[in-house]
Amino acid sequence: MDGRSARKRQAIMDAATELFLANGYQGTSMDEIAALAEVSKQTVYKNFADKQQLFAEIVLGTAARADEFVRAIPGVLADAPDVEAGLRTLARRYLAAVMRPELLQLRRLVISEAGHFPDLARDYYKRAPDHVMATLAAQFGDLSEKGLLDLDDPDAAASHYAFLVLGHPLDRAMFLGAECGLTPTAMNKHADAAVGVFLAAYRPD
User: Fold this and answer.
1) CA torsion angle for 84, 87, 88, 90 (degrees, to 10)?
2) Do residues 177 and 104 touch, judged by C-beta distance below 8 A?
3) Of 56, 99, 138, 162, which has the highest C-beta tally within 10 A?
4) Gap between the Cα atoms of 175 and 169, Å rounded
5) Is the pTM value of this prediction over 0.85?
6) How many degrees, rounded to 5, is the angle at CA 72 between CA 87 and CA 83?
7) What is the rounded CA–CA span in Å between residue 46 and residue 113?
8) Residues 6+ apart with CB under 8 A from 171
9) What CATH number was assigned to the domain covering residues 3-48?
10) CA–CA gap between residue 17 and residue 11 (Å, rounded)
11) How many Cβ atoms from other residues are within 10 Å of residue 143's Cβ?
12) Which CATH superfamily is domain 61-202 in?
């Protein structure tokens, strides 16, 4: 794909993302996407077979960004001066990554369309939340083998960590949006407190 074609394809995806997030999947037409992207409708269909394919590429493209966080997890924990500092840094980055407004909007959209596109919702879950959880479990298992955490079930520990870090803030943001009142300072404070509770359960004696 040459540079001009790539730019048009990106313009289509950017326009579609904006319209899907603003109006929902059902409330967005290919005509509107073409108009906002400033391309012909023929160009839209040249790049994407239909609206469903375009929607799927946007959703799974966003899910792929979770890989950046996943790749960072081992380094964050390994580079920290101690396990508590590493878990706090990781919690702050985890919360900041998930609480991005555009990601929250997309998450709402995927959930709202899960009945129409169950396979897409399942793929998004596997590539993003589930991938993060599996990586956390693997890292917690390693920390346990080194005697830095005391746990028998890495999967359960990862689930507890994720819920402590994300549970309340994510619920607030999903339901209240911009009105959730969670500033970066408040989220950092919550992340640190979550790690304190986690270590109360899993710190070695």
Assistant:
1) 160
2) yes
3) 162
4) 10
5) yes
6) 20
7) 25
8) none
9) 1.10.10.60
10) 10
11) 21
12) Tetracycline Repressor, domain 2 (1.10.357.10)
